[in-house]
């Protein structure tokens, strides 16, 4: 179609290839993280003095109990070093050292971009819905009651040295970093598991005797009493070390992967058995707690590396030698300089070359993510699961034409369906409502992190496609909104025609048994249950079937794809 003649396409706009801070959502600062106890929000910064006092008390207590004869006897029986037979005889081979370094490097980007993603909806919940006031953790104020408060309004700024790219509501770019490095991290982890178990190195990490527990207790007492345990780390770790490494490598890491994937609409809306037990919000909370474990682990791990024989420890993991030379320190310094350089460059690079980050991310993980689109979403909930609060998102329609239609309850509304179809048509609102109606109770997944269950009623997209008859070349379905996007220009989004044939793909005109409200997208909004929320266009004006979308807007497959560097395929 020629865009000069088509007013639908004429109102689409191009988008810059970099993140323009002057046109972006202005910064907004949150509050120090708080945890809720009943009705009270406690500032987590209290944890710092509290932990300091507890640590001091624990040191005093440990030093005291070690003077008791029974404790001394216990520690003589369980000295803390593995009495179990398996020692490692291959030192620290090159692959182990390389994987340790890669793991460290990848974790830096995963944690930083993860915090950025969290800041886009700075609240954590245990229940399925995202009900303000029922969070257990947040770094944002109460939701204002006296004005429209969208989920974008709720996002907060975190500094660029911490988040990637450190700009408010940059979740699209942060996700490319997060998911790309996740893939690298998982690959590195899987290779390391294989190598661990095909050599003798697994003995370092896997306890093979129950005596690991009393020995770990003994080691903990030795650390706490500031009389550090005897180290034999070249061949074996002490019991506490072994236990914490085991938890980190074989429990925390897989848990991070599982709870990450369970936040995806395509996966959660496919595997009901899983998602009924572990809702997206619970998965997001656990995912965050696993991150806290990793951060705590890194902090203690690094502290102990430096306080329990720095040169020897660094020689093990960075030089692979068992001596007191400075080689390990030198190699460690080079490695850290590289990490620091990458750290400093990540945010400015992402802002300046946002489109490049989007393209590179799509190259790396676009196809793998796309595989999840092959699953037909099918999970539905009961009416009793409907969320009492459903966040709003998006930029409202402001055109006079839309206002005129809305004033008369869309009596004069006409949905136009054209493009590569055998029978282009125009349907009135009454005609649409007279066709087959389908009702479904489904969970919505916003890219920002909130979710909510609602009951949607409307016309199945597959019926509409049957009516118009897609031509053989038609591969995509474009939805044009009455509303503009945040940076001006018409909001639109493109879906694969396969996605629109899913049983749960719906042109909704009802929400929770009532007519769809203005805020939620009246007269029509899309439901596509295997994709993230931004792909479900609200206030639909027209639908067009096309063979390609590179000529629309900035060519990325939708408004937020163009302007906020989201991916076109967003089942994960
Ligand atoms: N026209 C239009 N549709 C839109 C948006 C928008 O900004 N404009 N925002 C999307 C996003 S990001 C989400 S999460 C959902 C939110 O739908 P809700 O406001 O009904 O919760 O609408 C989507 N549809
Ligand atoms: Mo969203």
From TrEMBL:
Keywords: Cell membrane, Membrane, Transmembrane, Transmembrane helix. It is found in: Cell membrane. The chain crosses the membrane at residues 44-65, 101-119, 176-196, 243-264, 285-306, 326-346. Residues 92-320 form the Cytochrome b561 bacterial/Ni-hydrogenase domain. Residues 409-548 form the Oxidoreductase molybdopterin-binding domain. Pfam families: Ni_hydr_CYTB, Oxidored_molyb. It is a multi-pass membrane protein. This is Molybdopterin-dependent oxidoreductase.
């Amino acid at each position: 179609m020629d865009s000069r003649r088509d007013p639908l396409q004429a109102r689409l706009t191009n988008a810059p290839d970099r993140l323009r801070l002057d046109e972006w959502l202005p910064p907004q600062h949150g509050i120090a993280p708080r945890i809720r106890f009943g009705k009270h929000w406690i500032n987590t910064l209290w944890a710092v003095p509290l932990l300091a006092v507890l640590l001091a008390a624990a040191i005093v207590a440990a030093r005291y109990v070690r003077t008791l004869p029974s404790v001394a006897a216990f520690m003589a029986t369980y000295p803390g070093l593995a009495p179990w037979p398996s020692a490692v005889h291959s030192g620290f081979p090159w692959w182990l050292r390389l994987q340790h370094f890669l793991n460290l490097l990848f974790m830096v980007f995963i944690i930083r971009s993860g915090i950025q993603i969290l800041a886009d909806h700075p609240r954590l919940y245990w229940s399925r819905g995202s009900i303000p006031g029922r969070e257990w953790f947040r770094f944002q104020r109460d939701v204002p009651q006296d004005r429209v408060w969208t989920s974008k309004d709720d996002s907060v700024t975190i500094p660029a040295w911490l988040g990637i790219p450190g700009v408010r509501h940059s979740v699209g770019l942060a996700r490319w970093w997060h998911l790309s490095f996740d893939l690298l991290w998982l690959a590195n982890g899987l290779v390391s598991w294989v190598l661990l178990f095909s050599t003798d190195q697994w003995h370092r990490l896997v306890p093979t005797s129950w005596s690991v527990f009393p020995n770990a207790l003994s080691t903990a007492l030795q650390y706490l009493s500031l009389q550090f345990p005897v180290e034999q780390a070249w061949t074996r770790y002490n019991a506490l070390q072994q236990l914490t490494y085991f938890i980190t490598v074989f429990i925390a890491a897989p848990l991070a992967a599982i709870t990450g994937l369970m936040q995806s609409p395509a996966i959660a809306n496919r595997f009901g058995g899983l998602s009924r037990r572990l809702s997206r919000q619970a998965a997001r909370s656990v995912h965050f707690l696993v991150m806290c474990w990793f951060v705590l682990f890194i902090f203690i791990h690094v502290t102990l590396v430096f306080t329990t024989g720095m040169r020897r420890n660094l020689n093990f993991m960075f030089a692979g030698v068992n001596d007191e030379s400075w080689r390990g320190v030198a190699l460690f310094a080079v490695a850290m300089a590289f990490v620091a350089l990458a750290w400093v460059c990540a945010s400015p690079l992402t802002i300046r070359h946002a489109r490049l980050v989007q393209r590179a991310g799509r190259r790396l993980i676009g196809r793998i993510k796309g595989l999840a689109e092959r699953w037909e979403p099918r999970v539905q909930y009961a009416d009793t699961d409907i969320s009492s609060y459903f966040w709003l998102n998006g930029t409202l329609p402001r055109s006079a034409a839309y206002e005129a239609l809305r004033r008369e309850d869309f009596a004069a509304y006409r949905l136009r369906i054209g493009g590569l179809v055998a029978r282009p048509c125009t349907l009135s609102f009454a005609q649409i409502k007279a066709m087959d109606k389908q009702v479904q109770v489904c969970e919505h997944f916003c890219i920002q992190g909130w979710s909510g269950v609602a009951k949607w009623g409307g016309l199945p997209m597959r019926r509409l496609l049957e009516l118009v008859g897609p031509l053989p070349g038609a591969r995509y379905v474009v939805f044009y909104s009455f509303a503009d996007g945040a940076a001006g220009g018409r909001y639109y989004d493109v879906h694969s025609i396969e996605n629109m044939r899913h049983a749960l793909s719906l042109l909704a005109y009802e929400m929770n048994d009532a007519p769809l409200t203005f805020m939620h997208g009246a007269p029509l909004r899309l439901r596509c249950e295997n994709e993230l929320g931004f792909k479900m266009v609200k206030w639909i004006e027209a639908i067009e079937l096309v063979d390609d979308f590179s000529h629309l807007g900035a060519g990325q497959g939708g408004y937020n794809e163009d302007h906020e560097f989201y991916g076109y395929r967003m089942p994960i």
